[in-house]
Amino acid sequence: MPSNLILLTGGGACFVLVVYAGLQLLPQRSQGTKKERRLLGEIAWLWTGKTDDVVDFRDIARIWRITPEVREEPLPPPEYTREEIRQFHSRWVTLPTVKNEKKQIIENILSILDHKGACPSVVQRNKNEAENKYDKDVFEQLAQVPLWQHSLSVASNLADSMKQAVMIPDALLAGLGHDLGKIPAYQEALYRTGDHPVLSLIVLNRIPGYESMANTDDISQAIRQHHQLAPETPLGVALKKADQKTRLEEISRMSPFGKDLPAETTKKFEEDLPPSPNIEEMGKIKPEKGKEKKSQTPTQPADNKKKQPIAPRKKKGKKVKDTVANKDRGLAENLELAPILDALKKRINKVEKGRWSIISTPEGVVLCQPDALWQEIKNVGQNNPELLVGDADEETKRKIIGAVVKRMNHELKAIETSQLGKGYHTAQCLVIVADGKAVKAPLIPFRSEAFYSLPSRLEFSKQPNLRRLVQKVKLPNQIQKDEA
Asked: In total, how many domains does the chain have?
């Protein structure tokens, strides 16, 4: 019994001690789990080192997480001295498709133009330059246009013509870089025998990143060929049109004639008139798909062919009415044809400075060199800006000549179309010169009736000096007979 009492008393004491210990520990556990509430901005100084500023949570996130926004955060634009270049940069270089290395190259080109582009936008240093063909007055006018201004205009016109936004970077590169070779500092240091497009590529290749682009060859080819008759790539064709359009705008602004020029004339360069073929292509017709190739010339001799009546010619001096419809048709559609034919008639079978321009044949065909017709078109057109541009661009010249020849055929029946291939305005003729050698030449075939003259009378007008220069001219149908 006493032992049970002792056990009971000891157990109770132990229970009391356990309960007491639990009561002592309970407040400490509760106190340890209590959380302190602090604003994130109050402890931001721990990683920012700033104790005064309030830090936005989005800025804090950049410290431990690299977001796409952080990777593509745009750098401030370069400092340009010219306001026009700053505006160009804001308009084009900030577009979403203009980025990465192409954006940096474009900005480098703009910096070059900003610091070195105050030079004239035309050069005549090399004989290969297309601008050598400009008239002296036109060249002096264009020399007043600084290179940086011309380059911005070409690049803007080219970028505007792009149908897809992804092509805009390439358009900016080609437009801004196509004339860098005209900068005097580069000409003095690098010029050898090449024209300015070649020198432009040398300058571009020195810009970091240009050579390593995936499509460097496409842009370089467009720049290299922008003065050629037929560029081989779509970008090259577009660059040439943009350059021509810009030149027309520049000449129109500076030329007294251009003050009244309608804006629609700038669309002339978008027309796709058939070009004049070169010597190798003359006399060949490209057959349409699904059709067999047909002969260009008839087997029936030209003198046995029934002649079409000549349409009455307009009186000299009568002007075309200056209507909106006429202006919309373009220069070639508004020229007076009668004065052109009258001027050509005076040059038939004449030797001018030791050369001939227009010659008759016994078959009743009068053959005219394209440059002779171009000269008379310019005389009648009174130095229209489109014609001035054509002096330095063979494609433009051929399009205007082709349009005039087409009108002469439709309106005056003045062209001997039996000698022409489909889509051509010149015929491949064989000129036999004094020593018996034969030279192929593209000539425009007129009908003798267009000049109100008989073939025999025209032949009688040939002077001995002309006969010494040319023994005979064979027409395409005669050449075909000889080869048969």
From this structure: 2
Mean pLDDT for 399-403 is: 91
Lowest mean pLDDT among 57-71, 187-201, 350-364, 434-448: 57-71
Partners of 440 in beta bridges? 430
Task: Provide the CB-side half-sphere exposure for 151 (13 A, CA).
Answer: 31
Domain assignment present for 18: no
Q: Cβ atoms within 10 A of the Cβ of 9, count?
A: 10
- Predicted local distance difference test score (pLDDT) of residue 145: 93
Say yes or no: 347 and 439 in one domain. yes
Same domain? For 208 and 321 the reply is: no
- Report if residue 47 sits inside a domain: no
Mean pLDDT of 275-296: 37
Mean pLDDT is lowest, of 152-166, 174-188, 310-324, 410-424, for 310-324
Tell me how far CA of residue 70 lies from CA of 37, 61, 102, 215, in angstroms: 31, 11, 20, 28
Statement to judge: residues 244 and 341 lie in one domain? no
Domain membership of residue 185 as a residue range: 83-254
CB of 239 closer than 8 Å to CB of 258? no
